[in-house]
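Input (structure):
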C-alpha cells in the first residue's frame, strides 16, 4: 500500500493508493477512442499510462485525506476488501487499504468526515467493512456525506445497470451507513469546513462533485471522475461508458477545463497515478501536440 503526502497552506493532503494497474482497454472505457489515437500518443502513454502488452489503460484507484487543524476529511474510499463484485479485479480482494491509513499515523476512529464524490463502486468500498456478521461503518466516529441529488438517484435504482455490472455496492457500502444514522445529505456546493467546499460537476452521475481547497497561493480542485485518464485531457469530448448523462458530462468537463486552465488551478484527479497533481494547459495551434488533435494537455507538477 502506497501513500503520498503534501502540504497546501494549512491543509495536509495525503493519498492512499489502493491499486494502480492495467484495468480497461481504451475502447472499453472510452467509446470514442480508436487504435490510431493510442498509436499517436504512444510515446508518452508508455509505461505509466498504458500497457501495450495487455492493451489496457493504467487506472489508479485511491483515496484523498485532508487534514486541517480541526478535522480529518476522507474523500472516496476505493473498492474495499472482501466485497462481492462482478469484475474479477474487484471481487473479494484484500487490498490492505487500512495499512495505508495506519502508515499515516491514523486509525479508523480518527476520521471525522467521509465524503463520497459519487456513488460508483470504486468510490464507496471502504465506507463499510465486514464484522463477521454484517457490513458496518468502517469509521465509527465519522459523518458520511453524500450529495442529496446523488442519493435521490441511486435509492430509486436498485436494478441499475451499474449495480448489475459491478455488484450491489449500494447494499453493502451505502445502506449500512443510513442504518447506523451516520449519513448527512448535503447540497452540491456544501462547505465542509471553512476553505474546503464541494463543487458541482454533474453528468458522470447526477450528484457528482469535486472538492475545492481554497488556498490563495495555490487553489486546488480534487476533480473526482471529471477525468479518468490523462488521455481525456487531450480529448475532452471523450466520455466514459459509465457517464450517466453523456451530454451533460461532456459539457461539464469542457467548461471546467477551460476555467481550470484559465485560472491555473492545481487539479488532483481520482484515477491519475503518481505524482497525480497537475495543471490543465491549452495546446496552441503551433504546438506539436496540436498535430495529434490535442485540445488541452495535462502537466504533472
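Output (sequence):
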Amino acid at each position: 500500500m502506497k501513500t503520498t503526502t503534501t502540504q497546501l497552506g494549512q491543509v495536509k493532503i495525503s493519498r492512499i493508493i489502493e491499486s494502480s494497474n492495467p484495468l480497461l482497454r481504451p475502447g472499453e472505457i472510452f467509446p470514442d477512442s480508436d487504435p490510431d489515437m493510442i498509436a499517436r500518443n504512444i510515446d508518452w502513454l508508455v509505461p505509466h499510462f498504458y500497457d501495450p502488452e495487455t492493451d489496457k489503460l493504467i487506472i489508479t484507484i485511491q483515496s484523498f485525506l485532508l487534514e486541517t487543524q480541526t478535522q480529518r476529511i476522507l474523500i472516496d474510499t476505493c473498492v474495499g476488501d472482501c466485497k462481492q463484485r462482478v469484475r474479477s479485479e474487484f471481487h473479494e480482494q484484500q487490498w490492505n487499504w487500512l495499512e495505508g491509513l495506519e502508515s499515516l499515523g491514523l486509525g479508523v476512529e480518527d476520521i471525522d468526515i467521509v465524503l463520497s464524490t459519487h456513488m460508483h463502486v470504486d468510490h464507496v468500498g471502504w465506507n463499510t467493512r465486514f464484522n463477521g456478521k454484517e457490513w458496518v461503518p468502517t469509521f465509527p466516529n465519522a459523518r458520511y456525506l453524500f450529495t442529496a441529488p446523488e442519493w435521490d438517484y441511486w435509492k430509486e435504482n436498485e436494478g441499475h445497470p451499474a449495480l448489475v455490472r459491478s455488484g450491489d455496492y449500494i447494499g453493502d457500502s451505502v445502506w449500512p451507513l443510513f442504518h447506523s444514522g451516520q449519513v448527512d445529505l448535503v447540497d452540491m456546493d456544501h462547505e465542509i469546513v471553512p476553505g474546503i467546499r464541494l463543487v458541482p460537476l454533474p453528468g458522470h452521475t447526477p450528484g457528482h462533485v469535486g472538492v475545492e481547497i481554497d488556498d490563495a497561493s495555490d487553489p486546488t480542485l480534487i476533480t473526482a471522475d471529471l477525468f479518468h485518464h490523462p488521455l481525456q485531457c487531450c480529448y475532452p469530448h471523450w466520455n466514459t461508458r459509465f457517464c450517466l448523462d453523456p451530454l451533460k458530462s461532456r459539457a461539464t468537463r469542457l467548461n471546467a477545463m477551460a476555467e481550470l486552465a484559465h485560472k491555473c488551478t492545481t487539479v488532483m484527479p481520482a484515477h491519475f497515478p503518481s505524482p497525480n497533481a497537475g495543471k490543465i494547459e491549452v495546446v496552441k495551434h503551433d504546438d506539436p501536440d496540436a498535430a495529434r488533435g490535442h485540445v488541452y494537455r495535462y502537466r504533472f507538477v
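Notes: The two ends are 22 Å apart (CA to CA). The chain has one domain: 2-300.
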